[in-house]
Design goal:
- This protein has eight helices and eleven strands.
- By secondary structure, the chain is of the alpha/beta class.
- It has two domains: 118 residues, 3-Layer(aba) Sandwich (Rossmann fold); 95 residues, Arc Repressor Mutant, subunit A (Orthogonal Bundle).
- The strands form three sheets. The protein has a five-stranded parallel sheet with strand order 2-1-3-4-5, with helices on both faces. Strands 6-7-8-9 form a four-stranded antiparallel sheet, covered by helices on one side. Strands 10-11 form a two-stranded antiparallel ribbon.
- Strand 1, helix 1 and strand 2 form a beta-alpha-beta unit.
Length: 225
Amino acid sequence: MNILLVEDESLLLHHLKCELENVGYRVIGCKKGEDALYLFDNFNLDIAIIDLGLPGIGGLELIKTVRSKDIKTPILVLTARSNWRDKVKSLNIGADDYLVKPFELEELKARINALVRRSAGFSKPLLTVGSFNLDTVSKKFKVNSDTVSLTKYEFMIMEFFMLNNHKLLSRAVLEDLVYGTNSGPESNVIEVLVNRLRKKLLKHSGINPIKTIRGEGYRLEWEIS
């Protein structure tokens, strides 16, 4: 999961980035609204966390500009302001949720997961596609009632496939999800991970729902039950 974190307090930016990366998220951090606009335009983002009190282009203006471009990335607002008008205004111009500082990291993670699930059409922590069940909280994956052991990266890819059921996912998008810019253009890590997933799914379900679209990428093809 790719998270954009826009926070002008250096210490808080560093702390949140480290904490979120420690639980498996990929975090792109910046301090200015101007930099955030560039990142919105040029990166595949699953969610953005935006502080309202930014220098230059403020948080509210940033959100308004992003939504004017029809960018639908879920936005979670961080604010130290207790004024209810700021909260209402941020929601009215396009933010999806807000969190008032100080906050607990566990609450932030819960809000992040809820927004990403909601944007993909899921309302609960349990993702269900066909006979596949993936718990985004406990990090457990089951086929019917059988628990299937997945590595960290296999779990990340399986979750991404399930959140994007029937959508074409390019190798580049999957590489960015797993390794970011550290993965070279000739890397075959995605092919290896997808093949391992296929073997495990075939063993436990008897089918292979991950289809290869030649020259384009992969697609999970199974109806949501």
